[in-house]
Design a protein that fits this description.
The complex is a heterodimer of chains A (about 475) and B (about 250).
Chain A lengths: L15 H15 L40 E4 L4 E2 L8 H15 L3 E4 L20 H6 L4 E10 L2 E10 L4 E2 L7 E4 L3 H17 L8 E7 L5 E7 L6 E2 L7 E6 L5 E5 L6 E4 L5 E4 L5 E6 L5 E6 L6 E6 L6 E2 L7 E6 L5 E6 L6 E6 L6 E2 L7 E6 L6 E6 L5 E6 L6 E3 L7 E6 L5 E6 L7 E6 L5 E3 L8 E5 L9
Parallel strand pairs in A: 1-3, 1-4, 2-4
Antiparallel strand pairs in A: 4-5, 5-6, 5-7, 8-9, 8-31, 9-10, 11-12, 12-13, 13-14, 15-16, 16-17, 17-18, 19-20, 20-21, 21-22, 23-24, 24-25, 25-26, 27-28, 28-29, 29-30
Helix pairs in contact in A: 2-4
Chain B lengths: L3 H12 L4 H17 L7 H13 L8 H19 L3 H40 L25 E2 L9 H16 L4 E7 L6 H21 L7 E7 L7 H4 L1 E7 L1
Parallel strand pairs in B: 2-3
Antiparallel strand pairs in B: 1-4, 2-4
Helix pairs in contact in B: 2-5, 3-4, 3-5, 4-5
Classes of the chains: A mainly beta (about 475), B alpha+beta (about 250).
């Protein structure tokens, strides 16, 4: 039974800009700044580029956490404004929108079961919405979403309303007509705009995470999944081993495949193109931020060394030259440095070097087995997998300048292979915490808020987050 | 240039069950023989069961090639042991053959759909490899005694060849010397803990260490190819997984 509350009219103070400003102040007061760690002796990192220009009204910390108070938001079902729904948008898009807003870390999505009235009695404009109803289910914001299918196009009319103010919120998103296949992607752009309104920086929903997983038909295949856990798509479909995906030029996936009986580097669906096929390992590719150079590992010279090549596979340059194993290159966001793993000190440890191979130095000095470095998009830390003294694998970050280490996961199964969201707010990783194999999880960059991405996908390995959000087709 | 059939055949063990799933129990069986050697009777029943099981699994030879060939190989060895009146060994091999035949049927059933799809589609793309990419991996039927050379094992994060591994490698070197027409693929593996990429490097280092060791014992380097599978093909416990396997070819 929906709970019926005493009907209250919004306080007259809560109107227009004053109301919003008070709301801002209230939120700011309520929300502890989770990014400040009492034990952290290093200065607060500079916010990511672009975030200082806050064009939203509400200013809240960039790092979402599960511990502060969340904005209660109501998302009634997607409404069919026409008469056909050939793809079942009502169910799919309603569920994915609620799930994504819940996942975003800033909102408490109010269960539709709590709606004691018919949401469809509302119109799509401020004048035709009964805000008292939404106020009485505890919503501060309500999302109204409608669609109309006409031949092969869909008109999407999505809006966000401030309940207290009784007004539509102006978003960096406008109603649009898209193709039948673009509805989910466009919905994510709308959600990203909602996140931008509340935080000053758009969300990254719609970006994909590539990973390797065993396939039911044998072998191990490369897949991509959208950040919300939906939109799973196979990159490879052979019966061989396909491992270590990464994002290449043009949003194509690079990976290592044994399909030709050597761990060779490929790019594109179904082993479309070979990038490097020297005898021995051709693994661990990562595209530089400028998008013109690939760092990767080969063993053609007798042990694993890190090389660069152009994106067409030409112009090979060797960066490391050491009898130890050097693997897992990860570019700094300015493209001037590369983090990597080397066991030149005994066990594997995180090192950094300049992009021309000079200035190689060790960064991690704690633990005996530190691997899979991932340089944050904000540049200030490198996330990695460390094996602690109890032989458990967990996710840590290290400051490459001070070697200061912070732990992000603990006592939740084996957590491995961190990868950053394009905006640096999130880290995706694999963990065995829910049993039965490794699943994909995301957490905020301070580790305060962690959740599974898709509980149904098991056996996930080597996730890599797409470095940018696909831009609008418009 | 390889042909599609041999490619499928060689791909199967990579994608499903590594060859040493067979070799390991066999190797363990060898250790058990002295314990079971006291007065066993002729295992005709076990042999009959094994023959029936292998015959019954013949259909699985297409979609579970490696598993079926392994069952056949075990049966053949069981028959040889029987003829040599080594009844204890014959019984154990026959029982292993029966288990392996059942396994082949199960794998074939699991793989059927994918295997048919792959045969019709994917191998077109695999098979377009130019000559310099065909590394001559096609294994013909004559190489089915690839199960002859057992694995050697390693310590965690180590590629040092220990005393026990040396003894095994010395025997392998002798066998390779006696069978000078055979070439060997040395497959490096790690346990499934840690980083995939680092483990690939470690697996290759193990394979290279074994090749160097055999080279010093006089086996020509041209006869030995190395490949690392890192943590991708576990066969059992961590201790069993940290290994180098040997696959023979002509």
């Amino acid at each position: 039974m929906p709970k019926r509350r005493t009907v209250r009219t919004p306080h007259p103070l809560f109107h227009g800009a004053t109301g919003l400003a008070l709301l801002v102040a209230g939120l700011f007061w309520l929300l502890p700044d989770a990014s400040v760690d009492a034990q952290d002796p290093t200065p607060e990192p500079a916010p990511p580029a672009g975030s200082t220009v806050v064009d939203s009204i509400i200013e809240i910390p960039l790092s979402p956490t599960g511990e502060r108070s969340l904005i209660p938001i109501a998302v009634p079902d997607l409404r069919n404004l026409g008469d056909s729904d050939p793809r079942g948008y009502v169910d799919e898009i309603s569920a994915r929108t609620r799930n994504a807003l819940d996942m975003a870390g800033y909102f408490r999505v109010i269960s539709p079961d709590a709606f004691f009235f018919d949401p469809d009695a509302d119109g799509m404009t401020a004048a035709t919405i009964n805000f008292e109803n939404w106020y009485n289910v505890g919503a501060q914001a309500v999302v109204k979403m409608g669609f109309r299918v006409a031949t092969n196009q869909v008109r999407l009319d999505y809006r966000l309303f401030n309940v207290d103010a009784g007004e539509e919120v102006e978003l960096d998103w406008r109603p649009v007509t898209v193709g039948l296949d673009e509805v989910a992607a466009e919905t994510f752009r709308f959600i990203n705009a909602i996140i931008a309104y509340y935080t000053g920086q758009p969300g990254v929903f719609g970006s994909r995470i590539a990973y390797a997983a065993p396939s039911s038909g044998g072998g191990k295949q490369i897949y991509t999944m959208q950040m919300d856990g939906g939109g799973i798509s196979a990159v490879t479909s052979n019966r061989s081993l396909n491992i270590l995906p990464a994002w290449g030029p043009g949003g194509d996936v690079m990976y290592t495949s044994y399909v030709n009986f050597n761990p060779d580097l490929y790019i594109g669906r179904n082993n479309a193109r070979r990038l490097s096929t020297r005898p021995g390992l051709n693994v661990g590719a990562q595209l530089n931020p400028a998008g013109d150079t690939i760092a990767f590992t080969m063993t053609r010279d007798g042990q694993a060394e890190i090389y660069l090549m152009d994106i067409d596979g030409q112009n090979l340059r060797r960066l490391t030259n050491h009898p130890a194993e050097d693997v897992s290159p990860s570019w700094s966001p300015d493209g001037r440095r590369i983090a990597f793993v080397s066991d030149r000190a005994g066990g594997p440890q995180i090192h950094v070097m300049n992009a021309d191979g000079s200035g190689q130095r060790r960064v991690t000095f704690a633990g005996r087995y530190n691997t899979t470095p991932a340089w944050s998009p904000t540049g200030d830390v490198i996330a990695f997998t460390g094996r602690d003294s109890r032989n458990r694998f967990d996710i840590f970050t290290v400051d490459p300048e001070t070697s200061y280490i912070e732990r992000l996961t603990q006592d939740q199964g084996q957590s491995q292979s961190p990868t950053w969201s394009p905006d640096g707010r999130w880290i995706a990783f694999t963990s065995t915490r829910d049993g039965g194999g490794a699943r994909l999880y995301i957490m905020t960059r301070d580790g305060a808020y962690q959740r599974v991405v898709n509980p149904d996908v098991v056996g996930v390995e080597s996730p890599r987050w797409e470095p940018r959000v696909p831009s609008s087709a418009r | 240039m390889g042909t599609p059939r041999p490619l499928l055949r060689t791909l199967t063990p990579i994608a499903t069950v590594p060859p040493m799933t067979v070799a390991r129990p066999l190797w363990l069986l060898l250790l058990l023989i002295p314990l079971a050697a006291c007065g066993p009777k002729a295992p005709t029943d076990a042999l009959d069961n094994a023959r029936n099981a292998v015959d019954g699994a013949a259909d699985s030879s297409r979609c579970a090639e490696a598993e079926f060939r392994a069952a056949e190989s075990l049966l053949r060895q069981a028959e040889e042991a029987y003829e040599n009146r080594d009844f204890a060994r014959a019984r154990q091999l026959a029982e292993a053959a029966e288990v392996q035949a059942a396994r082949a049927r199960r794998v074939a059933e699991e793989n059927l759909e994918d295997c048919e799809r792959v045969e019709s589609a994917t191998f077109d793309t695999v098979d377009d490899a130019d000559d310099d990419h065909d590394r001559g991996w096609a294994i013909d039927d004559a190489s089915l005694d690839r199960y002859t050379l057992g694995p050697v094992h390693f310590a965690f994060d180590s590629y040092a060849i220990e005393e026990e591994a040396r003894a095994i490698l010395d025997q392998h070197a002798q066998w390779l010397e006696d069978n000078a027409d055979r070439r060997v693929i040395i497959q490096g593996h790690t346990d499934d803990r840690g980083s995939s990429e680092y483990n690939l490097a470690l697996g290759e280092r193990r394979a290279r260490a074994v090749r160097t060791y055999l080279d010093r014992l006089g086996i020509a380097e041209e006869r030995m190819t190395i490949i690392s599978f890192g943590m991708e093909m576990p066969v059992g416990t961590h201790d069993e997984n940290r290994r180098v396997d040997f696959v023979l070819r002509q």
